[in-house]
Each structure stands twice: as structure tokens, then as C-alpha cells.
Design goal:
One of its GO terms (molecular function) is adenylylsulfatase activity. Keywords: Hydrolase, Nucleotide-binding. InterPro entries: Histidine_triad_HIT, HIT-like, HIT-like_sf. It holds the Pfam family DcpS_C. By secondary structure, the protein is of the alpha+beta class. It is built from 4 helices and 10 strands, in the order αβββαβββααββββ. Helix 2 runs antiparallel to helix 3.
């Protein structure tokens, strides 16, 4: 887990002070990993922030590691529990983070919103903005942080191991496994039907794993 200065806490971080209960902010939830409180300038019917106790500046400091995936999942679980408790009548919830340079505080915080937005114009602050960053939904961030071991376990059984090329004779199950880089190689060494090419799929994020499909 990436932290400022190897785990050091910045002296001027307001959210660190809230996490240490050094302010008058009312905590809606507190455990050894995260705390939650109401946004001081709510943009929706219910608007809570869930933050890690440990100082992490932004989503850019998170890595594809089990501990970061687990932390964001816990932030999300706490946020969902609070909104379902306090705004059960809401039919639409939003959960996500502002990405630099549009984040307001350099301490990771999950926005938990029970809609509608109040006033409605504040919804513009919670749109994705492509290369400019903007708002990223928590589910999308979790996909980016999902550990590679978890990703590999979801692949189809025909993906056996790294550095293995498997020839399939009319295997239709391989055509929609993952977005892939497709190249063509000779079929001479794999099939008796030399007149037809075979597609070799190099599957990201495993560049050494290839599947040959008819």
C-alpha cells in the first residue's frame, strides 16, 4: 500500500486529524482501517465520505495488490452499509473517487451519495472526464486493482499456463475470452490442414500466455 513518505502522516492533513478523532467531526463509522463522516458540503440527499486511517494521497497511489484491493473493497462495503441504513428510500446510489488533479483533498476518500443530487447542478462534479480524470466509480477502480492471481482464476479452463500455446480445432469458446492482440502464424506445425492460418491470441495482462485458435 502506497503511503506518503513510507507511512508518514502529513502534519497538515485534515482527514488524518479526523481519522485520529482530533476534530469535532461526528464519525458515522470507525474501525482500525477506515472512518466515515458526512461531507461538509453535501451534494446529494445523503453524502458521506469514507477514508482510510492510514494516509494515502490519491487513487494514483493505489497498486494492483491484494492489500489495496482489500482496502478499497472495505471502503465500499462501509459506504454501502451506511447509505442503506440512512437512506433506504433512495433508488440510486453512487460510489467513487475524484482523480487528480480534480480531487479536493490529498487524502484518499470515497464519495458515497444517495441521490438525488441537491442541487441538481452538483451532479457535474461526479462525471468521468477521460484523460482529465474526473470521477471514477468504485467498481471500475476495483477492476483496475484486482490482483493478477484473482484475474487469472477467472480465465477459461483452456488457458493452461504461461508460455503455453494450445491449438484448438474449431474451439469457439476462445473467441470471446478477453480483449486480445491477434496475430497470424503458420498452421503447418499444429494442423494437417496447412492451407488455413491459425490465430494466436496474446492475452493481456499475460504477454507470455498464448492460445492458438482455429
Amino acid at each position: 500500500m502506497a503511503t506518503l513518505g513510507g507511512g508518514a502522516t502529513p502534519s497538515a492533513c485534515l482527514f488524518c486529524e479526523i481519522a485520529r478523532s482530533s476534530t469535532s467531526a461526528t464519525l458515522l463509522h470507525s474501525d482500525d482501517r477506515v472512518v466515515a463522516f458526512q461531507d461538509i458540503k453535501p451534494a446529494a440527499f445523503r453524502h458521506y465520505l469514507v477514508i482510510p486511517v492510514e494516509h494515502i494521497s490519491t487513487v494514483n497511489d493505489l497498486k494492483r495488490k491484494p492489500e489495496d484491493f482489500s482496502l478499497v473493497s472495505h471502503l465500499y462495503d462501509v459506504g454501502k452499509t451506511l447509505l442503506r441504513r440512512d437512506a433506504p428510500q433512495s433508488t440510486h446510489y453512487r460510489f467513487g473517487f475524484h482523480q487528480p488533479p480534480l480531487n479536493s483533498v490529498n487524502h484518499l476518500h470515497l464519495h458515497c451519495l444517495a441521490l438525488p443530487f441537491t442541487p441538481r447542478w452538483k451532479s457535474i462534479k461526479y462525471f468521468p472526464l477521460g484523460p482529465l480524470g474526473g470521477f471514477i466509480e468504485v467498481e471500475k477502480l476495483l477492476q483496475k486493482l484486482k490482483p493478477l492471481s484473482a484475474v487469472s482464476s477467472t480465465l477459461r479452463p483452456c488457458l493452461l499456463s504461461l508460455k503455453t500455446v494450445i491449438a484448438f480445432h474449431g474451439c469457439s469458446c476462445c473467441t470471446d475470452i478477453l480483449p486480445s492482440q491477434v496475430s497470424t502464424m503458420s498452421k503447418a506445425n499444429h494442423h494437417s490442414h496447412k492451407s488455413q492460418p491459425v490465430k494466436t491470441l496474446t492475452l493481456s495482462p499475460y504477454p507470455d500466455t498464448m492460445v492458438a485458435c482455429c
